[in-house]
Design brief:
The protein is 80% helix and 6% strand. The chain is mainly α. Helix 1 runs antiparallel to helix 2.
Amino acid sequence: MTAAGGGFHFDPDKVQTAINELNAILDGMPTDLQKAQRLIHVDRPGPDRVTGGFHSAMQKSHEEHLKALQEFRAKVTNQIANLQAAMKQYHETEAANKHGLGQRGV
């Protein structure tokens, strides 16, 4: 959607392309989320203090990564919903305009 002459130009093909690309991103996320979950549950390799310190920092990093992935998935899902709502509104407006023009004999 771009401003054009004081209004907005809506290109449904570009919007549908964006929806498709976002859905493709979403389709790959379960694998990423599963990997992130597995990394959180990796056991500490040894009982020594140095390994424990490293492992704690690593686990914290994995937890933050998982949280970031979950937030990203929510944002992508929300963006898809917004774009689909815009497409629906566009098609409804187009249909109403065609109906109105048809009644006027144009």
